[in-house]
Specification:
Strand content: 25-35%
Radius of gyration: 18 Å
Shape: globular
Oligomer: single chain
Number of strands: 5
Largest sheet: 5 strands, antiparallel
Length: 149
């Protein structure tokens, strides 16, 4: 198998999760991802977005981590969690996937809007990187002939 670098952009989404989900994940219960309604809707959006997470023969590829996010709510906000003037710490699921760098800006905007539409926060934290390179595999002619036989 030959490895080459493919130009992509990174999509990273910060998603609040209940303490119970965080505890289950910390205990190794990966079923908690599907059991949590919010994360489940995020994973469904990934499945419905063919432009995300394509690595050759692998589709819907993502990485995740669980952590904590802190913020202070300012006047005029309509927070899902916390109160004006209060520092809030939220357990957070961080979802990362990649899409081809050739995806045009309008398609990227539509992709981000799909996430914003289902995200529970008033102002979701969604990061979209500039181009970077990730490894990808390609079948070499020798490997292709072995696969065919």
């Amino acid at each position: 198998m030959k490895i080459h670098l493919k130009p992509v952009r990174k999509l990273r989404i910060h998603w609040p999760i209940p303490v119970e989900t965080m505890t289950q994940l910390a205990g190794g219960d990966l079923a908690a991802l599907e059991a949590d309604a919010g994360i489940s809707s995020l994973l469904q959006a990934l499945t419905e977005s063919p432009e995300l997470g394509g690595f050759g023969n692998y589709h819907h590829v993502f990485e995740s981590s669980a952590g904590y996010e802190g913020f202070t709510v300012a006047e005029g906000a309509n927070p899902t969690l916390g109160r004006v003037g209060q520092r809030t710490i939220s357990p957070t699921f961080v979802f990362t996937s990649y899409f081809d760098d050739s995806l045009d800006d309008e398609a990227v905007q539509q992709l981000v809007q799909r996430i914003v539409d289902i995200h529970p926060w008033e102002v979701p934290v969604i990061e979209v990187s500039g181009p970077l390179n990730v490894s990808s595999s390609v079948l070499t002619p020798v490997a292709e002939s072995r696969v065919a036989s």
